[in-house]
Amino acid sequence: MKLKRTLTGLTLKAGVLAALLLSSCDKGFEEMNKNPNAYVEPVIPAVFSAAIMRHAGVGDGNTLYPNSKQAGSLIQYFSSLNAFQWTGVKYLYQGKADYNNGLWNTAFSTELKEVQQILDLTKGKTDMVNQYNIARILRVDILHRVTDLYGDMPYTEAGRALDGIFKPKYDKQADIYADMLKELEEASKALDPAKPSYGAADFVYNGAPAKWKLFANSLMLRLGMRMTKANPTLAETWVKKAIAGGVMTSNADNAKVPHTSASGTNWNWNSRQMQTVEGNPASAAGLGFSKLNEALINRLKAKNDPRLPFYSTLWQGNINIANLPAESTHAKAKGLPGGFDYTSIATAIPGWNANMQRDYSEMNQHTIAHLEAPTHYQSYAEVEFLLAEAALRGWGPGTAKEHFDKAVTASITSATLYPNYALVIPNPTAAAASYLAANPYTGGTTAQQMEQIHSEMWVALFGYMNNIESFSNWRRTGYPVLVPVNYPGNETGGIIQRRLRYPAAEQSINTENYNQAVANQGPDNFLTRIWWDK
């Protein structure tokens, strides 16, 4: 299974996914473990590429279910009348187990294993200092999303099956956060632009250590701010460290993975979910299962937000999603209320009939949900919103307004990173200026300013499909203020859930450690709050 270093760009991407996302790779991994020196040069870049793409969800829709059908629905980006698939909008635990378990299963069974292979092969090698430390940063980005959804989880013993650890202990989330922040700090400081890196095998930054340093510190800012409820003093310490170390300063710094629509192995699979119904083209289904929630659409309309036609569109007739700005105007846009099914929706919308579904907005498949739309791990816009909060708290330079304006501008102008943006936002820079003039940062009490910052951040994160991050930020801040639903038979009593359940397999396979985690954290249900959410 030799993969030559001369493979570059999309050719490398296709080759990596064909070779490494399939079980045919097992022999290569076994040989690598028997003789670590045999394939170090060719295998490490290939394994890293596979980990990058898998972390973006490519080739594995199950990884993305918690992002879209759970977090995206809980945070009221999406709504659906289908109770079986889009369970998050109704606080249900049913349907496919992957909707709850997908991220956990893929992170621990494949992503982490790939990253651990790299760490084991590069640790202590001075000529591979960048490969080692970039892998440390990627490991944090993989695992923080998992702990943010579930809470306590395997961490120090995770990914160590090759060492004979098949039933890893669960670490407490406070300890996990402490180590993740330490890893980011050490890795960012150790990166050396003068030494080799992954080159073209790095689909995020093309092997640029300086960019990975910015990403590491920006992640540190995210995780530091996450602790404001649980440990404000520690949060302040890490936020200040992140800012001092240097964070993203433009959209050119966004941590993102490019995609092409030429092959399913290179698609944006977040977009694929928005374009399919269980693997069938949406056009064949007549109407998509997922609609945009009225909470999102109503805000975009109320603010005359230029991102509305970039984010959403309507159906033409009963066949194809529209590719015309006229079908995405503010006047025509309409969000679907959450918490209803095909029968009960008539109680909210009198005279409802199935043909009315086409009148409700969906994601724009020609822009934000295009198969070539980039997958974002983290954006510059998010960083500026967090810097606005840091300034408000007195933890960072500048004013909250300055960073707020930069954040909104970054969000709107990042449309240029997506296909066909000019169809709906011909001049993003001018659109951002007009939006801020009409919707200025108004100041006020701390609570009022927090609401302004994080309600806008909620709108912005939708544009990057960072639904898990948006769900985490909402749990931490309480903004935007969301109105819960009370669908019959829901498992929370009409309260927006705070976490996902552990996979059922953990109870039967890793029973002792699972039981200890439940004893430490609380009942394994939707309402138990994880450490940083208490």
From TrEMBL:
Species classification: Bacteria, Pseudomonadati, Bacteroidota, Sphingobacteriia, Sphingobacteriales
A UniProt-annotated Pfam family: SusD-like_2
Protein name: Starch-binding associating with outer membrane
Cited Gene3D superfamilies: 1.25.40.390
Source organism of this protein record: Daejeonella lutea
Signal peptide from the UniProt entry: 1-28
InterPro entries, per the entry: SusD-like_2, TPR-like_helical_dom_sf
Keywords from the named record: Signal
